[in-house]
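can u pls check wat happens w/ adenosine-5'-triphosphate
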Amino acid sequence: MIEVRDLKVRYGARVVADVPELDVGEGECVAIVGESGSGKSTTLLSLLGLTQDAEISGHVRVCGVDVLTASPRRLREIRGARAALVMQSPQAALSPATRLGVLMRRALKLHGVGTAPSAGGTPDEIMDRAVEAVMLDREILRRYPHEISGGQAQRFAIALAIALGAEVILADEPTSALDVTVQAEVVAVLRGLREERGLALLLVSHDLALVSTIADRVLVMKDGAVVESGPAARVLAEPSHPYTRELLEALP
Ligand SMILES: Nc1ncnc2c1ncn2[C@@H]1O[C@H](COP(=O)(O)OP(=O)(O)OP(=O)(O)O)[C@@H](O)[C@H]1O
């Protein structure tokens, strides 16, 4: 689903992300961890061609599309629909005067989902199933963005991705704005989607406790470079790089 080789992202002369290898297969979760400014978000955004003013080299394939050479039209086909980005505070991106159901219906229409009679049902059926998949009541579709909590907004953002038929979710600190119990709900939703729908998940987080509960593999970034990578259980239990040990020691 995601295949990265020799990715380098530069702003001017400075390499802010250097990722030799990163693969996320169907039903897998890979986490990128590291302190603020280490290049995690830049790496994530570059996978969808969303870094502005950056010079990018290497090989990036997402849902079968060669991102660095694809036409803008081809990129638009995967962005949002097949590969969805879930950010830290989705509420800010939701139009305040639009009910969530109206917003979701517009997104489906924009991407042509639910228009063909055969393709997964009517827009209403697709929306109901997506909301159910993230354990929200369908009544939420009648609400405005300010009428929902941070955890509900995050789950709605994931539901939107599901409704649009996402195969890959790229999540940037999806739970950092949430309190601990609500974080657990969002993680449970993501874990369920991987297991039940084979969704591939690339997660950026500075929260190693969260990562240990969901990721199969971990990449540790520092100053733009990957200093350690491997199975999450191994990296978190027996870190081989001093920086990973530092991150682990900083855990509460
Ligand atoms: N548009 C830009 N122009 C120039 N430099 C940038 C730009 N965007 C990011 N950077 C720089 O790239 C480096 C990596 O930033 P990035 O946001 O990827 O780090 P991060 O690990 O995700 O940090 P955080 O956890 O704080 O989001 C930082 O030094 C940042 O200042």
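Residues 11, 16, 34, 36-42, 52-53, 206 surround adenosine-5'-triphosphate (CB under 6 Å).
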